[in-house]
Amino acid sequence: MSAEDGQGRHPASIGDAPNREAWSDGFKTGLPTLFGIAAWGLVVGIAMVKSGLSVPQALGMTLLVFAGSAQLASLPLIAAQAPIWVIFATALVVNLRFVIFSALLAPHFAHLPWRQRFYLGYISGDLTVALFLQRYPTAAPAVGKLSYLKGLMFPNWIAWQVGSFVGIFLGSAVPAEWGLGFAGTLAILCIMVPLMINNAALCGVLVSGAISVLAYELPYKLGLLLAVLVGMVTAMVIEETIAKKKVSRG
């Protein structure tokens, strides 16, 4: 069996060629989410400035990090002048889901040069990965696959950055007594509630909340990191236990 198609292309690279129609399809699919992404970027931008970052620092963070949940989790640690390893460890734990995203996308794009995979990983987001996998659930070669992914990712990245930039400059202009710093907490709540889709996730959130209160006195806000870890482990254990019970019942 030949490793190439009739035009001399490797099957894995069939979907790499630029395809305007596929890019447009990706953009249309992700369009309804862009307004929410921009709003999310807006509140994170405000939270960054209200947490004590200067405008240049906030702009640098949103361009370099591009991870709203990790940014919000690290902001109170930065404000508390926690050790750098605590800040990195917290961001790493919060972003562990991107390891799963990478594993899911790898069968589709493992053949690409590492530089291209690197920047695609940088601009990837939760919703863009989910929408892509809905369209392409298997790694079977398909025309326009890479263009479709870019049609999801690039507008998503731009919407986030525009929202963040507006939030940063708005946050720097609005007086502190208006309490906009609490916007980040509200944004986290808005995202967290829809994610509690089953009992395992709900238990993880409840345990994490309890640990964060009980461990509040830990130095360098280590209670936050501990709460994230214990909450994740709790949700995973409960989900695994429920799955085993379902299997044993047939």
Write the layout of secondary structure elements.
Elements (H helix, E strand, L loop, with lengths): L19 H31 L4 H10 L3 H12 L4 H11 L2 H13 L4 H10 L2 H10 L9 H29 L9 H13 L3 H16 L7 H28 L1
Estimate the mean pLDDT confidence: 82
Shape: globular
H-E string: HHHHHHHHHHH
Total E-strand runs: 0
Span from first to last CA? 41 Å
Most strands sheet: none
Category from helices, strands and their pairing: mainly alpha
Strand fraction band?
under 5%
Radius of gyration: 21 Å
**Low-pLDDT runs:** none
Share in helix: over 70%
Number of helices: 11
Describe this structure in words.
The mean pLDDT is 82. The chain has helices at residues 20-50, 55-64, 68-79, 84-94, 97-109, 114-123, 126-135, 145-173, 183-195, 199-214, 222-249. It is globular and about 55 Å long. It is an all-alpha fold. 73% of the residues lie in helices and 0% in strands.
Question: Which characteristics define this entry?
Answer:
11 helices, globular, mainly alpha, 250 residues
Can I get a quick summary?
The protein has 250 residues and is an all-alpha fold. 73% of the residues lie in helices and 0% in strands.
